[in-house]
Fold these 2 entries.
Entry 1:
Amino acid sequence: MSKYKMISPAVPNMPWQEKPENLTGAPLWRYTANPVIDRNPVEGVARIFNSAVIPYEGKFIGVFRGEQTNGVPFIYLGRSEDALHWEFNKEKINFVDEKGESFMPKYAYDPRLVKVEDAYYLIWCQDFYGASIGLAKTTDFKTFTRLENPFIPFNRNAVLFPRKINGNYVMLSRPSDSGHTPFGDIFLSESPDMTYWGKHRHVMGKTPEWWQSVKIGGGAAPIETSEGWLLFYHGVTGTCNGYVYSIGGAILDIDEPSKVKYRCENFLLTPETWYEERGFVPNVCFPCATIHDSETGRIALYYGAADSYVGVAFTTVDEIIDYIKEHSLVREEDTELGIR
Ligand code: BMA
C-alpha cells in the first residue's frame, strides 16, 4: 500500500524496473537499457529527444521532437506496446486548422501531450513571430486541430494540467526571450475555453541553489496526488562551458497551484551518464512526461538527454514525495499566490 495516492488511472502495463540495491540517497533511478531512443530513429530524422508519451487504448502513444536532417525540429507520432520500444511515423504530424485545412507551424519542438477529459492536447514551442507556444487537440491521433496560440511571444515550456481546476483549464509556461534565455520563472495561466488565457500567476523562480540558479521551466504534466500536484521541472545552471539542465521536483497546492507547498532543494537527476553528458548539446536532462500507475504508485519519467536521446528514470510516489518533503526549501515567493 502506498503512503501517498496518485489520483489517476491504473496503468498496469507501464514500464518498470526495481530500484537498484546499491542506490542510496537518490530518488530516481535510470532504466538500465537507456537510452530508449537512439540516433537516426526514422528516415529523415537525426535525433529524437524532449518528447512526451501517454497510455492509449491499452498501449502507448507519443509525440516526439524529431530533429530533421535539415536541422529543423518537428513533431512526429510514435506508438509502442511497452513504452520502451517505439515505432515512428515517417511523416510529421499534419496539423490542420478548424476548417480541416493544413496549418503547419514553421518548426515545432519540445512537445507535451496531456489528456484532459475526453481530448488529448499537444503543447509545443513554435514560431509565432518569435518563439511562442502552439496548441492542438486530437481525440483519435489522426486529426490534430490547432487551437489559438495561448500566449504572445516570447514563451517556452508550456505544460497543461490533466484536469480543470476551479472550472478552468490551467497551463504552466515560462516567458522567455528569442534566444537561449538567460532567465526564466514558471507562471500559471487559466482558461475557461482553451482560447482565452488569463488570471496569470507566478508559481516559482530560480533560486540560489546553483543547479537552478539561471532559469527553470515546466517539465512533465503535473501528477495529481494526495499531497498536491507533483511537478517534475527542469533547472538550469551556467558554467564556462554553457548551460547544464537538471531535473527538479516540487509539490503545488491542489486548489491553488500557484502556491508551492514543497520544493526540493536538491536536483532529482543531473547529467552523469554518457547519453546525458555527450551529444548535440551536452549535459542536458529535460523532463517532458510521466507514465504512472495509481495502483502500484510507480512512476516512469521520460526525459530528453543531451538533445540527442530519450531516457527513462523510475521512482515511486512514496519515494519521490518523501524525498521532496525531506529536502524541501520553500521561499516566501514560492508560497505566495503569485499576483502583484
Ligand atoms: C532549451 C530548449 C530545449 C533544449 C535545451 C538545451 O532552450 O531549446 O529544447 O533541450 O535548450 O539545449
Note: The longest helix spans residues 317-326.
Entry 2:
Amino acid sequence: MSQGGRLQELRSQLDSVNNELLGLLSERARIAQEIGQEKQKQGVPDFDPVREKKMLDALIEQNKGPFDNETVRHLFKQIFQASLKLQQVDTKKQLLVSRKKKQEDTLIKLGDTIVGGGKPVMIAGPCSVESYEQVRQVAAALKEAGITVMRGGAFKPRTSPYDFQGLGVEGLKILKEVASEFGLKTISEIVDPAHIELACEYIDVIQIGARNMQNFELLKAAGDVNTPILLKRGLAATIDEFVHAAEYIVSRGNTQVMLIERGIRTYEKATRNTLDISAVPILKQETHLPVLVDVTHSTGRKDILAPCARAALAAGADGVMVEVHPDPATALSDAAQQLNIPEFQDFLANVKKSGLL
Ligand code: PEP
Ligand code: MN
C-alpha cells in the first residue's frame, strides 16, 4: 500500500472511532441525566466527590496506556464535569419559580389590588414607622391619592448599631391600626425567623430586605407561612442568586412571592446604588413571579425618581415602591431620600402622565 493510502486508511479508522466515542459519550450523558433526576427525587446533591474519585481510581487501574494516568484522569474529569453541567441545567429548568415550570403569571391578591395581573401598583410609605401620627399622616395622603398598599419599616436593619433600629412589634401594631382605619394593605420588613408567624397577625406582606436575601433560615421561615412575601434583591446579588433565594421560599410551600429590584452595588457614585433595569425583563422572562422596582433605595435621589419609575414600568415592572414621609428632614432613617407628601403627589402625577400606571 502506498504511504498516502495508509494515511487515508488510518484517518478513516480514526473517524469511525470518533463516531463511536461520540455515541458512547452521548449514551453516558443520557445515563448521567437519569441519575440526576433520580438524585433530585431523593434530594441528594448532584456532585458526589467520593463517587467521582472511585470512578477515576477504577479507570486508572484499567489503564494500559499509551496515555499516562494523569492524562486519563484529566480526560475523564472533563467528561464528568460535562455530565454534571447537564444535570445542573436540568435542575435549573425545574425551579418552581421558573417560567419553564409554570407558564402563567403568579398573581398576589391584596384586597382589591392584584399584583402581577397587568395593572401596575404603586406602593408607598415611610422608611421607618416612627409614630402613630407620622404613619397616619402618610396613610391619609396615600388614601387620597388612590394608593392601596402602604410600606413602613418596624424592624430596621441599619448599617450602624447606634442608628434607630425601629419600633419593632410596636411599629407593626401602629401599621395595623392605621391601615384598618384607612382600608390599606401593609408591607413591613421582618429580620428574625422567630418573628415571621407573629408578623402575619399584623401585616399583609412580609418584606425580606436586601441584607437578608440570603438569610436562608429567614427564607425558610417565610416559606412556611401563607402571607405574601416581598423579597428584595441583595446588595451584591446576581439575578441567579436572587431567583434561588425566591426558590427557598416557594419550595417550602409559600407560592405568594414578589421580587423587588432595589439597586446593586457598583463603582458608580452618582446614585446610592445602581438600578439594574435589565433585571426586570430578565426576571419577568425567567420567573412567573411579580417583579417590582424600589426607586428610592436604588437611586437614593429624589430628583430622578419619576424617570426611573417610568423606566421600570416601561421595562415591564408590575409595580414601583417609593418612600414617603410627612417631614423627611426629621426622619429617623433615610432622611435625604424620602419624598414629602406634596413631592409624592407630584411624583405620582408625573408617573401617571406616562400612561404606564
Ligand atoms: C427598606 O425597604 O426599608 C430597606 C431597608 O431596603 P433594602 O433592604 O432594599 O436596603
Ligand atoms: Mn429606607
Note: The chain has two domains: 3-94, 108-353.
